[in-house]
Amino acid sequence: MSVVLELKKRRAELSAAVNQLAALEATGAALNAEQVASIDAMQKEFDDIGAKIARAEAAERMTAATAQPVDNPQGPRAGAAPIHATPAAPTVKGGGMARMAAALIEAQGNYREAANIADERGYGQEVAAALNTGSPSAGGVLVPANMAREVIELLRPKTVVRKLGARSLPLNNGNLTIPRLRGGATVGYIGSDSDAPVTGVKFDDLKLSSKKMSALVPISNDLLSNAGISPNVDQLIVDDLTSSVGAREDKAFLRDDGSGNLPKGLRHWALANSVFTAPELNAIDAAALQVLENFLNKLILSLEGADANMVSPGWVMSPRTFRFLEGLKDMKGSKVYPELANRTLKGYPVGVTTQIPNNLGKDGDESELYFADFGDCFIGEDQSLVIDFSKEATYKDTDGQMVSAFQRDQTLIRVIAKHDFGPRHQESIAVGVGIKWGK
């Protein structure tokens, strides 16, 4: 690790220690003389390190500016690898937002002070400039569009709806209208003295309006204290942020019903005549396999029979349904759908997500299966994100238990995104319901 990084790491440790003592005093506890002296000493060391970092960075810039290539009068040795300068530390896509969050948390929400912290710690001029020129919104601090786009792009491999080809379009003032053709033009052949057929095109609109999504992400304070120092730490923070946002997105775009402030997902966009009840497969024999094959074909034919464009068709299913189909064997012991090993089914890609539950139906043991042309589905989204934080808030864990971020030495980061979802043509969606396979 370079001298500059070592100094910055030490300064981060000092800052965390001072903040811990300050937080203790804020709770009403009195600090003893030794603790007060310790704070003074750490503050002095923090300032001294800042001066050392400035000198060390200046020396590095001077060295880089005056560096000269070393010439070999005899030319390069045959087979020798070329000599390159030491590469810069790898940057993490979306890391700007992670470092921005870390600076804001250390500055306790003071975005001007956060800009100074970002500048002093070498978080990057882009992060410091964004904090210095930004302004807090009602729900937190606005992340600049360029940083937000990086994070939004990272959602694609983590959300099945985006990954399968749903198209993202920007919302204009929170709204987006996409025209769609409902009835085709009248077309026919005519004789030399006949009138041309009258064109009777019918149009409709897909209207998307901004829906606010809030995702809560608990992150260890130990990680946050090292943000900007190690790209691995930045990557962990970005992964946590995008995983939480992506999971909630998939639930919204697949199964939310559009009531209140919720988007409407595929399940509720599907037309009634495009929803099919799955057959029960009590015994696996040749007849049952044919029934299953007919059912899967029925979902595909629902789109093909409606002349769907079939630009990016694909399947979405729960892990239970996927494992049943992937392990299904015929009477000879051969896999019925071996292509599922490559995440395709009948030639179309497969997305697997836990956001399709297995506890539906009156007995709580059913799931669903979706087949849709995702190239005909649109995500209208605001190209910015808002972040806020709390060190005292509580949240529910995966078991539904209330957790205190303060007790666990965590910071709860809230990410707010605005978007909506819908298909251009509802005929581009088919849904299988009542799936009990693999239970």
TrEMBL record:
Residues 63-90 are annotated as: Disordered. Residues 78-90 have a biased composition (Low complexity). Pfam families: Phage_capsid. Residues 4-59 form a coiled coil. Keywords: Coiled coil. Residues 139-433 form the Phage capsid-like C-terminal domain. Gene3D superfamilies: Major capsid protein gp5. It comes from the Bacteria. InterPro entries: Phage_capsid, Phage_capsid-like_C. SUPFAM superfamilies: Major capsid protein gp5. It is found in: Virion. This is Phage major capsid protein. The lineage of its organism: Bacteria, Pseudomonadati, Pseudomonadota, Betaproteobacteria, Neisseriales.
